[in-house]
Amino acid sequence: MNIMKGGVVPDSYPALYLKDYRTLVLADLHIGYESALKEKGVFLPQASYPYMKSAIEGMLKMTRAEYVVFVGDVKHEFGKPTAQEWVEVQDLLAFLINGGIGVHVVRGNHDNYILAILKRLGVQLHDPLMQLDGTVLIHGHKDVKLPPETKVVIMGHEHPAVSSRDLSGSRYKFKCFLVGRCRSFKLVVMPALSPLSSGVGINETLPEKLLSPLLRASNIETFAPIVVEENVGVFRFPQIGLMRSINRR
Fold first, then answer.
1. How far is CA 141 from the centre of its chain?
2. If you ran DSSP here, which 8-state letter would residue 221 be given?
3. What global pTM score does this model have?
4. Cβ neighbours of residue 119 under 8 Å, at least 6 residues apart?
5. Interatomic CA distance for residues 34 and 195, integer angstroms
6. DSSP per-residue letters across 52-74
7. H or E element in which residue 49 lies
8. pLDDT tens digit string along 109-133?
9. Largest CA distance in the chain
10. For 2-248, CATH number?
11. Is the dihedral of CA 206, 207, 208, 211 positive or negative?
């Protein structure tokens, strides 16, 4: 499905392929999240990275992309990389580079100290934005002065999802893109690639509680969620405002 002109969802993955630039855009991997949970007494197998690496490999074969851009939060810890982050981030970058893929990283709020890893492998860090003609890629956690020619902004950070309940009252969340207008440009908010992030139920979140300054400055009620459910499909939902009104009935 087309998310924007020249931007498509590869199969039903939470990712965006920019056809004109042969570029695969990914957001919020949060590599090393299991180590952070372990410090809090929550023990999970370190399975998220193998899943993401396999998914990225599948998307590259599917799209034949020549570049990968991570729009922030490649790693999870705010501080210095954990042992898990050192190993898995380097492994992913080396896998891409050895496969002939050009790699770019837009700095996110979790990407402190990532420069040491990137320098080892010659990967460029973009802070605060990366520009592809009229398309600007940011993480989304802070206000950024955008170039005057900006037509589209692609960002992560918010981990958007759609929340719903069935007749029994059971609650479900589905990762989604958010697509709408902010000032004079189109804004595309990407879902998190991390399988450990189920996302934030945008249709249940008050506008003032949103994380991104750009989203808080937008009329979120007019944004359309586009749900991506792996191995199921891609589904365009009604605008957030309409979804809220339906939920209130």
1. 12
2. G
3. 0.94
4. none
5. 11
6. HHHHHHHHHHHH--SEEEE-S-S
7. helix 48-63
8. 988 889 889 999 999 999 999 999 9
9. 56
10. 3.60.21
11. positive
